[in-house]
Automatic annotation (TrEMBL):
Residues 40-204 form the FAD/NAD(P)-binding domain. PANTHER family: GLUTATHIONE REDUCTASE (PTHR42737), THIOREDOXIN-DISULFIDE REDUCTASE (PTHR42737:SF7). The gene is Txnrd2. This is Thioredoxin reductase 2. It comes from Nannospalax galili (Northern Israeli blind subterranean mole rat). Its cofactor is FAD. InterPro entries: DHPH_N, FAD/NAD-bd_sf, FAD/NAD-binding_dom, GSHR/TRXR-like, Pyr_OxRdtase_I_AS. One of its GO terms (molecular function) is flavin adenine dinucleotide binding. Residues 205-269 form the Pyridine nucleotide-disulphide oxidoreductase N-terminal domain. One of its GO terms (biological process) is glutathione metabolic process. One of its GO terms (cellular component) is mitochondrion. Gene3D superfamilies: FAD/NAD(P)-binding domain.
Length: 324
């Protein structure tokens, strides 16, 4: 059985760094002089749930709209398509994997209800989830096209209050200008930079939700917590959640803080941690280590350069969803 460690603690600042672009006027799509005609009425930076909703609404109202979206690869080199966190690595794949776990439970129960299910059952969940996500990526592109919203797969940063510089994966630069610019760049999960091996060998996501469906699809899953589960939430509800998970096989290591991760010759990961209750060091061997220690807002280069888009026409946009 594969083993999975989900680690929950608070760490220092995240891992992602923006390359400073060198955009100058004169490249393709060069912006018009300040005060002159802009390329677009509205430019949205970030093609996630918030950015896409905003762009589509504005286009519906007859505005000339563009969206820029660019996914900075994770330390493991993972990228994904249009649609942002929810579609690619958040709500949608999570719900599909929960559903896969629930269906697995039902298949196991089915014979008690008179169903004969052929054994062994094959699980091709990862491929099915990826295919569904790709269909959503494509659907979002089509929806933008249908509404005449121009899509640029570029990483945007501010040049001035009406102009952004976009850089493609291959380094090609484009200047885009707009009367109004919306920042809808979301956030990315953090890696602990002080723990040896954390970003080389770890991946990221959310803790208890992932641990729940990973246990549900039959993986031996351990959640390591520095303090208490779901800190900041109603602790009576939190206990109900963790007791339910424990009764289904999820293991919880409370009061433990990981100190290093080493890759073993066979490819598995050896995690070493400090157990604050016993004062001893613990170790365990896992196939995968997933960090769930919070998120950092995605930064736009201009902020680092000292150009602060903190006055109109900048608007930041947040994602609101119908819930989990
Ligand atoms: C595992 C998991 C499960 C979740 N489940 C739920 C749920 O059930 N219900 C719920 O409501 N929420 C859920 N969420 C949260 C939800 O996914 C996010 O709140 C939501 O996706 C945020 O949307 P956004 O548009 O603000 O940002 P994002 O979706 O993150 O989109 C921002 C986009 O902008 C891009 N970008 C960033 N900087 C630039 C730049 N400079 N130039 C161009 N592009 C840029 C990013 O790469 C990204 O594609 C979940 C999240 C996770 C991780």
């Amino acid at each position: 059985m594969a083993a999975m460690a989900v680690v929950v603690l608070r760490g220092p600042r995240g891992h992602f760094r923006w390359r400073v672009p060198t955009c100058t006027r004169g490249v393709r799509g060069a912006a018009s002089p300040a005060g002159g005609q802009q390329d677009f009425d509205l430019l949205v930076i970030g093609g996630g749930s918030g950015g896409l909703a905003c762009a589509k609404e504005a286009a519906q109202l007859g505005k000339k709209v563009a969206v820029t979206d660019y996914v900075e690869p994770s330390p493991q080199g993972t990228r994904w398509g249009l649609g942002g966190t929810c579609v690619n690595v958040g709500c949608i794949p999570k719900k599909l994997m929960h559903q896969a776990a629930l269906l697995g439970d039902m298949i196991r129960d089915a014979h008690h209800y008179g169903w004969e299910v052929a054994q062994p059952v094959q699980n091709k969940m990862a491929e099915a989830v990826q295919n569904h996500v790709k269909s959503l990526n494509w659907g979002h592109r089509v929806q933008l096209q249908d509404r005449k919203v121009k899509y640029f797969n570029i990483k945007a940063s501010f040049v001035d209050k009406h102009t952004v510089c976009g850089v493609t994966k291959s380094g090609k630069e484009t200047l885009l200008s707009a009367d109004h610019i919306v920042i809808a760049t979301g956030g990315r999960p953090k890696y602990p930079t002080h723990i040896e091996g954390a970003s080389e060998y770890g991946i990221t996501n959310v803790a208890l939700e992932c641990a729940g469906f990973l246990t549900g699809i039959g993986l031996d899953t351990t959640v390591m917590m520095r303090s208490i589960p779901l800190r900041g939430f109603d602790q009576q509800m939190s206990s109900l959640v963790t007791e339910h998970m424990e009764s289904h096989g999820t293991r919880f290591l409370k009061g433990c803080v990981p100190s290093r991760i080493e890759k073993l010759p066979a490819g598995q990961l050896q995690v070493t941690w400090d157990d604050h209750a016993s004062g001893k060091e613990g170790t365990g061997i896992f196939d995968t280590v997933l960090w769930a220690i919070g998120k950092d807002a995605q930064n736009l280069v201009s902020l680092e350069q000292g150009y602060s888009p903190s006055f109109p026409p900048f608007i930041s946009w947040v994602h609101h969803s119908a819930g989990s």
